[in-house]
Amino acid sequence: MKILAEFKEFAVKGNVVDLAVGLIIGAEFGKIVNSLVNDVIMPPIGLLIGNVDFKNLFWTLKEGAVQAGPYATLVDAQKAGAVTVNMGLFVTTVISFAIVAFAVFLLVRAMNNLKSSQPQPQPK
Q: Tell me: the pLDDT tens digits for 21-57?
């Protein structure tokens, strides 16, 4: 039963709890960023470049067996069984990643600034 005691000691350490809280908050932050990109950033960009709906920006590689193209939306193409390259979804994901990466960079930078501003103990 020594392994259970070791596991209990590991699981209740502050670092594990901090990690769990960080993961939960990170997942929710990801949802906020996805909404920001999908609902706030991409619609005006699509409007500026000619009424492009990024959710439906795709190339059909092979038409579906159920229904032949052209397809009005990506959902229609997927329902028909078409093979598509979903460039709009990819661009949206890249923008979401860039925003999350920048936010993490700012957080790490702030933490490093806090660490460097604290007085360091002098060796005796």
A: 888 988 998 899 989 998 999 999 999 988 888 889 9
Structure tokens at 12: 């209740």
CB within 8 A of 46, min separation 6: which ones? 52, 53, 54
Where residue 12 falls among pLDDT bands split at 50, 70, 90? confident
Domain range list for the chain: 2-52+86-117
Report the 10 Å Cβ neighbour count for 82. 22
